[in-house]
Design brief:
The protein has 117 residues and is an alpha+beta fold. It has a single domain, classed as Cytidine Deaminase, domain 2, CATH 3.40.140.10. It has 3 helices and 7 strands, in the order H-E-E-E-E-H-E-H-E-E. The strands form 2 sheets. A 5-stranded mixed sheet has the order 2-1-5-6-7, sandwiched between helices.
Length: 117
Amino acid sequence: MTDAAELDPEDRKIVTLARSVRARNGVAEGAAVRDETGRTYVAGSVSLPSLRLSALQTAVAMAVASGAHSLEAAAVVSEAQTPAEDDRAAVRDLGGPETPVLLAGPDGAVRLTVQAG
């Protein structure tokens, strides 16, 4: 577990944003990504009869649709113990294999940081 005080302020920001969208929308997970210019994209999981996307996949898609060329970092707030491989793949596609993916619990405490690759 990583203490919030140990996080870079920009990483703490995306964890906070991911936690907020999860709570506000009442979804299973929330995510936020930061692009190469410092812009952030925040999303919750999408569960429609014809479309299912994790929160992190949705945030990456929003970044791409907004013109982002790469990612600096990603965060997901979930009950999960590890980031899903599909989520890491989405981050890797835009950010590269070394892009950090922070996984935090619903309380906002970062449990794990892994590289997308």
